[in-house]
Specification:
Layout lengths: L11 H12 L9 H4 L1 E5 L3 E3 L8 H17 L2 E5 L5 H15 L3 H6 L2 H4 L1 E3 L14 E6 L13 H28 L17 E7 L9 E6 L5 E6 L5 E5 L2 E5 L6 E5 L1 H6 L9 E4 L6 E8 L6 E2 L11 E2 H15 L11
Parallel strand pairs: 1-10, 2-3
Antiparallel strand pairs: 3-11, 4-5, 5-6, 6-13, 7-12, 8-11, 8-13, 9-10, 9-12, 14-15
Enzyme class: oxidoreductase
Protein name: gibberellin 2beta-dioxygenase
EC number: 1.14.11.13
Length: 339
C-alpha cells in the first residue's frame, strides 16, 4: 500500500504517473548495463583540513597533496576539521526542515527565497529523466533580501552565515587546487566571490514506488566545486571505474566534489564525476549544497596548451546546459565544448 502524500509534498506521484502512461513503461528506468552495475558502499577519501592551517610546512604539503590526489582520482572527497561548527550545521538543518514542511501550494506560489522553489523535472520526457525531490536554488546575491523570507525570518540569518562559511571553505580548497597547477592561489577569487555562487536546499520525500527512482538524475555539476552537507540517510552514488558506488554517510564530514569548470581549467587533471541520488521508501532525506561559480562573463579556459576544450564564458556554458535540458530532458555538458 502506497504512503499518503502529506500537505507539504509536491505532486511527484502525479508526474510519475503521467510519464508512466505516456510511455507505457512497466519498469522504472533503463540504462546501459555497464553503468547500472553497483559495487556496494564506499568511503570517500577522508581529509583532515587542520593540516592546511598547521604551521608545519610538511603537514600542509601532505594535506594539499591528498586534496589533489582525491580530485584527480575520485573527483570526490570528504573533509573534517573544516571550520564550520557542527551545532550551527544542526541549526541550519532545523531551519531547512521547517521551510520544507510548509504546504506545497504555499511553497510553489508565494515567492519564497527569491521564488527559487522547484520540484520534480518539468522538462522530463521519460522516466529516466524524472526525479523525486524538491529544492530551493538560491543565488547568493539574494540571500540577504528580507522580502523573500516571509515568516521564515530566522532562516535569513542562518543562510547568510552558511554562505559566508561555505564560501571561505570553497576558496581555501580552490587555492590548493590552483596552486598545484602553478597558478597564483587567489586567481579564482578574482572571478568567484560571495555574490556569484548558489546555495541549494534539497529535500527528497519518502518514495513509495521503488528504490530505483532517482532523487536526482545522473549529472555532473556546472561549477568549479561543490560542498555538500547531508544527513545520515544515504542515497548519494557516484561513478567510479565505470560502476556506481554508494557513498557511506559520515556525520562529521562535508562532501566536496569537483565541477565541470575545474575539469576544463585543469585540462582534465581534476575530474568532474557523474553522480546521482537514489530515493528511500522509509525516510526523507535532506542536504544543502554550495556551488562555487564565477561571474557569467568569466572566461573559462585550460591553464595550459594544448587544451582539450574550447574557451567559453560561464554564461555561455550555462545557456548551453539549459538549452540541452529543455530539448532533451538531460544535461550534455562538457562534450559540447571538446576541441
Amino acid at each position: 500500500m502506497m504512503a499518503m502524500r502529506t500537505a507539504s509534498d509536491p505532486p511527484l506521484l502525479d508526474q510519475y504517473g503521467t510519464l508512466l502512461r505516456r510511455h507505457e513503461e512497466n519498469q522504472v528506468s533503463r540504462c546501459n548495463d555497464n553503468l547500472c552495475e553497483m559495487i556496494g558502499e564506499c568511503e570517500l577519501p577522508l581529509i583532515d583540513l587542520s593540516g592546511l592551517r598547521n604551521c608545519n610546512g610538511d603537514e600542509r604539503k601532505a594535506c594539499a597533496a591528498a586534496i589533489v590526489k582525491a580530485s584527480s582520482e575520485w573527483g570526490f572527497f570528504q573533509v573534517v576539521n573544516h571550520g564550520i561548527n557542527p551545532e550551527f550545521l544542526g541549526e541550519m538543518r532545523r531551519e531547512q526542515m521547517k521551510v520544507f514542511q510548509t504546504p506545497f501550494e504555499r511553497k510553489a506560489s508565494c515567492g519564497l527565497l527569491n521564488d527559487s522553489y522547484r520540484w520534480g523535472n518539468p522538462t522530463a520526457t521519460s522516466l529516466k529523466h524524472f526525479f523525486w525531490s524538491e529544492a530551493f536554488h538560491i543565488p547568493l546575491t539574494k540571500i540577504s533580501d528580507d522580502a523573500w523570507y516571509g515568516e521564515f525570518s530566522t532562516l535569513r540569518e542562518v543562510l547568510e552565515k552558511l554562505a559566508a562559511e561555505m564560501s571561505k571553505l570553497a576558496q581555501l580548497l580552490a587555492e590548493v587546487l590552483t596552486e598545484n597547477l602553478g597558478q597564483s592561489k587567489g586567481i579564482l577569487e578574482e572571478i568567484c566571490n560571495e555574490n556569484t555562487g548558489f546555495l541549494r536546499l534539497n529535500r527528497y520525500p519518502k518514495c513509495p514506488i521503488s528504490p530505483d527512482i532517482f532523487g536526482i538524475v545522473p549529472h555532473t555539476d556546472s561549477d568549479f566545486l561543490t560542498i555538500v552537507y547531508q544527513d545520515q540517510v544515504g542515497g548519494l552514488q557516484l561513478m567510479k571505474d565505470s560502476k556506481w558506488v554508494a557513498v557511506k554517510p559520515n556525520q562529521d564530514a562535508l562532501i566536496v566534489n569537483i565541477g565541470d569548470l575545474f575539469q576544463v581549467w585543469s585540462n582534465n587533471q581534476y575530474k568532474s564525476v557523474e553522480h546521482k541520488v537514489m530515493t528511500n521508501g522509509r525516510v526523507e532525506r535532506y542536504s544543502v549544497a554550495y556551488f562555487l561559480c564565477p561571474s557569467y562573463d568569466s572566461l573559462i579556459e585550460s591553464y595550459k596548451e594544448p587544451s582539450t576544450y574550447k574557451k567559453f564564458t560561464f554564461g555561455e556554458y550555462r545557456k548551453q546546459v539549459q538549452e540541452d535540458v529543455q530539448k532533451t530532458g538531460h544535461k550534455v555538458g562538457l562534450p559540447r565544448f571538446l576541441l
